[in-house]
Specification:
The structure holds two protein chains of two kinds. By secondary structure, chain A is mostly beta strands. Chain A is built from no helices and twelve strands. The model of chain A has no long low-confidence stretch (mean pLDDT 93). In chain B, 0% of the residues lie in helices and 51% in strands. Classes of the chains: A mainly beta, B mainly beta.
Chain lengths: 113, 113
Amino acid sequence: GDSVTQMEGPVTLSEEAFLTINCTYTATGYPSLFWYVQYPGEGLQLLLKATKADDKGSNKGFEATYRKETTSFHLEKGSVQVSDSAVYFCALFNSGGYQKVTFGTGTKLQVIP
Amino acid sequence: NAGVTQTPKFQVLKTGQSMTLQCAQDMNHEYMSWYRQDPGMGLRLIHYSVGAGITDQGEVPNGYNVSRSTTEDFPLRLLSAAPSQTSVYFCASRDLPNTGELFFGEGSRLTVL
């Protein structure tokens, strides 16, 4: 079945540091890929997405490129801020089967001033 | 816009008690789902629905019931709560068909003693 593996956290960075959160996936067919963000005490919200190979999703300074050859969708940001502290989830959507969205286990990011 | 609304936000139950978590969405989404979030396990799908009168099981359906009498509402019932059901529950909805972007409620934190 489909699965998503993301790097374990927590990740602690100083403000303005470079961020990478790794995400790899296993899926049949051609899934869409997502990054969701969960701020403390809130539900998940979509951060960015890519629907086909080589697409780059971007939002709020975050980027991720859909790499089919390495089955990866790593999240990057050039300069993190304290306000980026949250839990980040990588996810995939496969239109086959019952169209399930499969989530990774989440990576907690803490940015310190 | 209200989006996806969940109630209650917090609930404490004793083992064996029953309760219903409410979920309502005002986006006219056909697809609605319930996830549970547990530390180190990401989000796991409990039940989902692709329209009024249609429900199906996800990965972890045991101990939970759902019904979908209207497009807007998708309640989750715990018939006899167990400590293993202590978790944070999220309701999420999306359009059908689409690329899989989910819209989440703020979550309901349930503790079973």
